[in-house]
Design the sequence.
């Protein structure tokens, strides 16, 4: 573990030496790139997925949908430190945003799902989340004539499968990209899009080394990194990160670097949801990842920059769900 830790620190030091000081090359080639609106999506598949995303009948209680914990009116999160699942159970970990999740290297804090389709089956059958089973979810959907017709239209066959359900939800999630943030406009050449204060915040973000981990289109989401490089992160949360997937001791306390797109909307922060505000999260990151204590003014500038990463939120008509039939298994919220 120690050796790995050192390797990470060396990588960070090299990064800082090479570009972190704001050399001309870094100016020319920004570590963050403009986020691109999605293309080549299957519109009817995504439309079916949107219905399923909002459908609480995929849960045992008939009350919890994907949108309960990844509320698209609230930045794709529940704004709770940890989520509330079936029978009001306390969730073990903070719900990350679904916005721009198609850009993630893998899904979940520890990356245990390879992609959005692999992820989508998880919560439906998780007893602490939606509390259903794949068999029951399929029975419910297959009992609803409106869905059966839509499956026929989209997949060419009426048979409802968990594969079809998760494929459709994943396609809908791929539409949840948030372009046109003020920062993207600035990156694209409109230098009036950021105030002097915000641009200064970006300079501090770059030069202090935040971009070593938060970079690319999603300003994160593309690597697993140690939490607590310079100082340990204190938490009661038992999650150990990537080691749960790889079994490698070196991966202990490595977490997927979250996207910072729309971070103004996705509070509270960190995998345990312990930081309520952006100033607090920025202060913690500076200290434990970079060994830096930002002044109050520097912190405020970085926060001002982070708020320029809020993009166009997904716009669509709220789906009207096809009604259950007489044969639809009824929800059992209290059993
Ligand atoms: C009860 C709350 C809850 C419900 C319901 C729920 N999720 Fe989640 N979701 C979470 C939590 C908590 C995590 C993080 C779990 C982890 O990393 O171990 C998560 C993770 C994710 C991620 C990974 C994001 C990332 O950055 O790694 C995606 C995508 C996602 N959920 C989509 C969905 C979809 C689609 C549904 C519906 C089928 C759904 N969720 C239902 C709470 C919920
Ligand atoms: C060495 C890699 C690394 C560096 C450097 C780094 N971060 Fe992070 N950042 C992470 C990881 C990993 C997490 C997720 C932590 C967790 O598991 O709770 C994170 C989380 C965050 C969050 C919370 C996002 C959320 O949705 O929960 C913010 C805000 C943030 N970082 C900002 C910054 C800022 C500002 C800097 C520079 C001062 C910075 N980070 C430097 C790796 C890094």
Sequence:
């Amino acid at each position: 573990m120690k050796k790995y830790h050192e390797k990470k620190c060396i990588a960070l030091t090299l990064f800082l030496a090479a570009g972190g000081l704001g050399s001309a090359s870094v100016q020319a080639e920004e570590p963050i790139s403009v986020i691109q609106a999605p293309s080549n999506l299957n519109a009817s598949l995504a439309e079916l997925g949107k219905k399923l995303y909002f459908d609480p009948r995929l849960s045992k209680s008939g009350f919890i949908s994907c949108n309960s914990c990844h509320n698209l009116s609230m930045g794709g999160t529940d704004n709770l430190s940890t989520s509330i699942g079936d029978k009001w159970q306390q969730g073990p970990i903070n719900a990350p945003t679904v916005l721009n999740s198609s850009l993630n290297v893998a899904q979940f804090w520890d990356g245990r799902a390879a992609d959005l389709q692999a992820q989508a089956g998880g919560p439906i059958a998780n007893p602490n989340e939606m509390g259903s089973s794949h068999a029951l979810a399929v029975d419910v959907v297959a009992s609803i004539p409106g869905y059966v017709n839509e499956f026929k239209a989209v997949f060419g066959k009426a048979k409802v499968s968990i594969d079809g359900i998760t494929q459709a939800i994943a396609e809908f999630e791929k539409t949840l990209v948030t372009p046109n943030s003020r920062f993207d406009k600035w990156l694209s050449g409109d230098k009036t899009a950021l105030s002097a204060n915000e641009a200064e915040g970006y300079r501090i973000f770059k030069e202090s080394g935040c971009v070593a981990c938060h970079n690319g289109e999603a300003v994160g989401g593309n690597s697993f990194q140690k939490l607590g490089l310079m100082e340990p992160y204190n938490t009661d949360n038992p999650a150990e990160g990537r080691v749960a997937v790889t079994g490698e001791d070196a991966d202990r306390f490595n977490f997927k670097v979250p996207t910072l797109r729309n971070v103004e909307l996705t509070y509270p922060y960190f995998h345990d949801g312990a930081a309520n505000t952006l100033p607090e999260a920025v202060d913690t990151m500076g200290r434990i990842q970079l060994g830096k204590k930002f002044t109050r003014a520097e912190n405020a500038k970085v926060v001002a920059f982070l708020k320029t990463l809020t993009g166009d939120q997904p716009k669509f008509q709220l789906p009207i769900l096809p009604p259950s039939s007489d044969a639809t298994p009824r929800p059992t919220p209290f059993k």
Summary: The chain has 13 helices and four strands. The pocket of heme C (ligand 1) is lined by residues 64, 66, 68-70, 83, 85, 91, 93, 95-96, 98, 101, 104, 107-109, 116, 119-120, 123-124, 129-130, 169, 256 (CB under 6 Å). The two ends are 45 Å apart (CA to CA).
